[in-house]
Amino acid sequence: MKQKFAATIAAALLAGSALADGLLGSPNGRVLGNNNILAVVEDRVITRAEVMKEVEPFIPQIKAGSRSEFEFTHRVNAYVREIVQNMVDRELIVKEFKAKGMSIPQSYLDTHFDDYLAKEFNGDRAEFIKYIQAQGKTLKQFRQDQEKDIIVSYMQNQKRQSVSEISPAKIKEYYEANKQKWHSPASAKIGLIMLKNSMYSTSEDNKKLAAEIVERLKKGEKFEDLARRFSKDDSAAKGGDWGWYKKGELNPLLDKQVFALDAGKITEPTAIGDMIFILKVEEKKPEGIQSIDDVREQIEWTIVEQNGKALYQKWLEGLRRNAFVKYYQ
Q1: What is the rounded CA–CA span in Å between residue 298 and residue 290?
Q2: Model confidence at 160: pLDDT above 70
Q3: CB within 8 A of 142, min separation 6: which ones?
Q4: From CA 54, how far away is CA 46, in angstroms rounded?
Q5: Which residues pair with 41 in a beta bridge?
Q6: Which value, to the nearest 10 degrees, does the dihedral of the CA atoms of residues 81, 82, 85, 87 take?
Q7: Strand partners, 33
Q8: Is 222 helix (H, G, I), strand (E, B) or coil?
Q9: What does the pLDDT look like over 206-230, one tens digit per residue?
Q10: Taking the CA atoms of the chain, what radius of gyration do you get in angstroms?
């Protein structure tokens, strides 16, 4: 099966190649067979073999989601192009990092590697060595890849716009343009007392207990105290706090009662299966558009992400324009 997948990938990689049977000249005068080379970025050659190692684990997933062999090949090719571009960009980012005279302290790289070894292999160096050998890498190559990943992550973060740079006017503008995104159905914060049939309490026992609990609530006993004492739900320890629910999220029998009541009111005991529910409506929010204050943080991070992606993409395009990059796929 694995060989079949590899053959399929190889076919997909070769499909659509501009010069399937020719030889390609590299920028430094070497002759490269395009069956093996997919791209050259500066003096770094990206081979078909290393791309295949990245693609192969995802082949079953791609195949499962494809309706035909044509779609499968098309999706594999698209994934290959994405991986090749990511590899090219990584080399360009690392080059830019070093061109700026920056470096990562060796102590940081050592700590990062030790943490990885402990987390992924429980500190078992022998298992780790088997893992990288299976990938066709040496320890030195693996650590170089780790360093590049750290550099890319650092440079990406440098291009992100901080929340403090998002003006109130920009937030309001986004809110007004996307109001329907913040539409929210009616919701209620609920307290719960749940009784459940068991070998110690029958359905009739629980009906009597539920009626007793309702009477005690009417006489002024606290819902939270009775929930801690009688409820069989995990929320009992928190005084029956069941959190916020939107209209339509509860069982229909409970939903109808909860959203017909005002805040502070209690539902009638409601039997569902082998359980009896008594709910208290703690708070309610009507259906409508959430206020800008309620969604301000979400808007800030949405704008940050959008701006960050745009700035990052513009920066990458600049790196690509100023570098030697050749694609053989």
Answers
A1: 12
A2: no
A3: 132, 135
A4: 12
A5: 44, 325
A6: -110
A7: 23
A8: coil
A9: 999 999 999 999 999 999 999 999 9
A10: 30
SS3 assignment, position 268: coil
| Architecture, CATH, for domain 186-286 | Roll (3.10)
CA distances from 242 to 212, 235, 238, 279 (A): 22, 6, 9, 9
Tokens of 260: 């017909």
Alpha helices in the chain (DSSP H): 2-14, 48-55, 59-64, 69-99, 106-121, 125-134, 139-158, 168-177, 203-218, 223-230, 252-258, 292-321
Q: Where are the domains positioned within the chain? A: 2-101, 106-158, 186-286
The partner residues of 272 in beta bridges, in order of sequence, read 275
* Token pair belonging to 265: 């009111």
Helix (H, G, I), strand (E, B), or coil: what is residue 282? strand
Torsions phi, psi for 32 (to 5 deg): -120, 130
Burial of 145 (0-12, 13-18, 19+ CB in 10 A): middle
Q: What are the residues whose beta carbons fall under 8 Å from the beta carbon of 141, sequence distance 6 or more?
A: 132
Instruction: Assess contact for 280 and 245: CB atoms under 8 A.
Output: no
Name the residue with tokens 């259906």.
287
Per-residue pLDDT of 96-150, as tens digits, reads 999 999 999 999 999 999 999 999 999 999 999 999 998 888 999 999 999 999 9
73, 12 in Cβ contact below 8 A? yes
